[in-house]
Write a sequence for this structure.
């Protein structure tokens, strides 16, 4: 007889907010899963009727770890309405700040929130690398944890130099940015970034970014890992060795639909190359590794399983038409989450660094997916190595900023016309959009779809599971009191529940 | 040894990320120095859910002494007082917080959401702060609440709260120093001066060199909605991330330490009558201020009018 446990409820922390998952388990394997965002904060409701610039102050407060991403999306929506060409320096400063935030988030999530599980004795005391893992990742005490806190703290100084503080500044305004740092401050940014890069290459990669960029196939990844102790002992090397031994590469496949909204506008004059969608980070939608062009009008949000009033007969709506009216029905019935269910062309899709890599046609990650399919290990790997891609470009934009320091950083905007605008970008966790309608100079509708809404989406009206619900199916469970494997799967998506339930 | 239990509710986690930028020492060194044991933090702890539940039981039956209970984020009471907009295992999280608060030596509200309700006080989530709801002393724990030490809730206002204020408060409590509080229970140590104090634009303010559009280099008080002279806080004294502050970077202060944050009127705009702000710097006499500002503008030196300083 098979051993079936139905509907156990697991609270999950280190997910920036509140998440519980309900799972059915049969013979030690997860057979079904429901993802429940358990808090509602009501930001979309709050925005209605407010001044047109108020989104720049209020929406960053949705999320403490990616507040600049929300600011960037909010300003992107207004830029559609003002329809001006932003000064190059404004674009450079916004991009630099946003990249610093993304790298900060990638490193903190990887070390403080993901790898910290490897230091959990209840789960891994028998793992051959446990002692080393404990030395590295013990909460706030492990050597890698301490390094990560120190290095990311210094990196976010770049944002404070550009925008006054982090988190929660509002230095991006319609027409540009509110100031340009003095010369010595720009030079200081360069030093901070150089220092960070030195640490990242030495400790995280164990090699130069250039050497890492030669790793373009699965085969070359194994070669790299065995090539030197520096590689195998680096965070990336250690992560791979620990994860393979713990079989994290065998779990968490997911939908294998990937979405990236694209990000980082290019200044008119720059040596950095455009990607699909005209920005530095490409936009696109992929099934497997087959990428197609992205069209924001194919997005809709389904609320059939979310705790909201079922307007429009429960039919999915584009966010320019969507509404958010909370309705807590408790745990009975169909509805089980405060997150809505975003769909692209009707499909659920995962988003985040791995999706960016696929849509950006990264040879390594495409090869990994083509050979073995997506899994929790490569999803996390994409996050740990993404800074390698960003750090090089930060350098270039800093140089260009220095060369053009006297050029404008702001163009005066007197009025913002009524209308509709969408600000769609890539936050650290993936696709983020703000859809804003302005009427009589006031905000009349504000809809936000966050990365975690994509990844942690509940079912839609066709009963199709969201990406991490799907990724949980088939995950083994060694100890039902401590679902560490399920935790690995979900945390590989870098959940941010405060964002998704805004 | 000082034990700390950190709970999050209706908030964004921003105060936690602020704390990671602590200038005093990195948090790991600081905790070590002060003998602080972080029993639980939702973003960092790696114990299993069962171990966590046991820990809560032990706090509630007082076999595990809890020195400092920190709440980040507002208490969510909606809908209709049930708290079902924020649950843990199907039960309102506010109830769990309440039982912990009854067993803590100190209760600290970190951030404006926890202190005064912040976002969502006037909306369906029925947010409230721990001892205050906006300006009224009628928050979640009630006006007469005191923790086991005899102190009321300590309100570390700000959105987020400045990192060194959080560190400094932990330092004070762990060192047995009692902090003196203002009328909204904010420690006078950090909330005894205005945000305006220490801003690099003070000289512009003094001579009324006003910024009326972004990026102009001037004081942001008269047109751009800067609340620096209206609300208390150390942003321009302690600086953010060891570097700067919003007004220094040309972003108006949004008044985030005020019990009424976020204000109802639009940001980036100063409500005014004939160029004089409706709300004047805290405590000034309107008639005297008008005369003084008129004269100050007349007395402004050329170098300031021409904004040659570029700072
Ligand atoms: S006070 Fe501000 S920073 Fe703190 S939880 Fe609330 S919104 Fe976030
Ligand atoms: S910008 Fe704000 S904080 Fe700075 S001097 Fe003017 S009023 Fe004061």
């Amino acid at each position: 007889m098979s051993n079936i446990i139905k509907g156990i409820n697991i609270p999950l922390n280190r997910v920036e907010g509140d998440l519980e998952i309900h799972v059915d388990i049969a013979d030690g394997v997860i057979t079904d899963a429901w993802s429940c965002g358990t808090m509602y904060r009501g930001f979309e409701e709050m925005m209605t009727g407010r001044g047109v610039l108020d989104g720049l102050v209020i929406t960053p407060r949705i999320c403490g770890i990616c507040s600049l991403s929300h600011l960037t999306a909010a300003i992107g929506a207004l830029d559609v309405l003002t329809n001006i060409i932003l000064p190059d320096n404004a674009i450079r400063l916004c991009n630099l700040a946003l990249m610093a935030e993304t790298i900060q988030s990638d490193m903190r999530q990887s070390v403080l929130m993901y790898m910290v599980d490897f230091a959990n004795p209840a789960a891994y005391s028998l793992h051959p690398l446990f002692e080393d893992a404990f030395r590295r990742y013990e909460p706030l005490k492990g050597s890698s944890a301490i390094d990560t806190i120190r290095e990311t703290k210094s990196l976010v100084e770049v944002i404070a130099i550009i925008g006054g503080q982090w988190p929660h500044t509002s230095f991006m305004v319609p027409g540009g940015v509110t100031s340009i740092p003095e010369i010595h401050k720009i030079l200081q940014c360069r030093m901070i970034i150089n220092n960070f890069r030195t640490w990242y290459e030495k400790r995280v990669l164990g090699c130069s970014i250039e050497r890492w960029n030669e790793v373009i196939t699965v085969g070359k990844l194994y070669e790299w890992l065995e090539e030197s102790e520096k590689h195998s002992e680096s965070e990336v090397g250690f992560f791979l060795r620990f994860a393979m031994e713990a079989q994290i590469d065998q779990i968490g496949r997911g939908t294998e639909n990937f979405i990236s909204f694209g990000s980082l506008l290019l200044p008119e004059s720059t040596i950095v190359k455009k990607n699909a969608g005209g920005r530095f980070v490409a936009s696109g939608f992929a099934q497997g590794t087959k990428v197609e062009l992205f069209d924001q009008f194919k997005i809709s949000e389904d609320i059939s399983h979310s705790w909201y009033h079922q307007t429009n007969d429960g039919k999915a709506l584009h966010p320019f038409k969507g509404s958010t009216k909370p309705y807590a029905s408790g745990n009975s019935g169909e509805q089980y989450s405060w997150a809505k269910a975003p769909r692209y062309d009707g499909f659920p899709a995962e988003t985040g660094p791995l999706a960016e890599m696929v849509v950006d046609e990264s040879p390594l990650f495409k090869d990994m997916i083509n050979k073995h399919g997506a899994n929790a290990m490569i999803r996390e790997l994409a996050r740990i190595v993404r800074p390698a891609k960003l750090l090089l470009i930060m350098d270039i934009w800093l140089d260009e900023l220095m060369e053009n320091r006297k050029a404008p950083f702001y163009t005066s905007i007197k009025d913002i016309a009524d209308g509709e605008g969408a600000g769609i970008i890539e936050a650290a966790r993936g696709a983020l959009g703000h859809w804003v309608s302005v009427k009589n100079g006031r905000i009349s509708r504000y809809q936000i779809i966050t990365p975690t809404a994509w990844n942690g989406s509940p079912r839609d009206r066709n009963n199709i599971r969201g990406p991490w619900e799907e990724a949980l199916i088939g995950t083994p469970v060694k100890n039902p009191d401590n679902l560490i494997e399920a935790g690995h799967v979900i945390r590989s998506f870098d959940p941010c529940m405060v964002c998704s339930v805004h | 040894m000082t034990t700390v239990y950190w709970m999050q509710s209706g908030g964004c986690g921003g105060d936690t990320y602020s704390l990671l930028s602590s200038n005093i020492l990195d948090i790991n060194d600081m905790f070590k120095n002060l003998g602080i044991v972080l029993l639980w933090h939702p973003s960092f702890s790696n114990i299993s859910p069962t171990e966590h539940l046991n820990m809560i039981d032990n706090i509630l039956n007082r076999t595990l002494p809890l020195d400092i209970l920190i709440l980040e984020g507002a208490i969510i009471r909606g809908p209709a007082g049930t708290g079902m907009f924020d649950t843990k295992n199907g039960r309102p999280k506010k109830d769990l917080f309440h039982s912990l608060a009854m067993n803590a030596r100190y209760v600290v509200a970190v951030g404006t959401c926890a202190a005064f309700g912040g976002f969502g006080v006037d909306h369906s989530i029925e947010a409230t702060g721990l001892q205050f709801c906006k300006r009224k002393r009628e928050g979640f724990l009630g006006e007469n609440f005191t923790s086991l030490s005899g102190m009321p809730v300590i309100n570390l206002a700000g959105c987020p709260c400045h990192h060194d204020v959080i560190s400094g408060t932990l330092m004070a409590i762990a060192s047995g120093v009692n902090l003196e509080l203002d009328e909204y229970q904010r420690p006078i140590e950090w909330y005894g001066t205005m945000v305006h104090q220490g801003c690099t634009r003070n000289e512009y303010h003094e001579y009324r060199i006003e910024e009326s559009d972004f990026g102009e280099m001037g004081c942001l008080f008269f047109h751009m909605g800067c609340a620096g002279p209206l609300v208390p806080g150390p942003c321009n004294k302690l600086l953010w991330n060891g570097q700067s502050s919003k007004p220094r970077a040309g972003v108006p202060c949004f008044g985030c330490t005020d019990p009424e944050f976020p204000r109802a009127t639009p940001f980036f705009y100063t409500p005014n009558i004939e160029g004089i702000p409706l709300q004047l710097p805290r405590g000034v006499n309107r008639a005297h201020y008008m005369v003084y500002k008129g004269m100050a503008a007349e007395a402004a030196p050329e170098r300031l009018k021409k904004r040659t300083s570029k700072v």
Notes: The pocket of iron/sulfur cluster (ligand 2) is lined by residues B 195-196, 199, 201-202, 205, 219-221, 226, 228-229, 247, 253 (CB under 6 Å). Chain B touches chain A through 75 residues (CB under 8 Å). The longest strand of chain B covers residues 2-8.
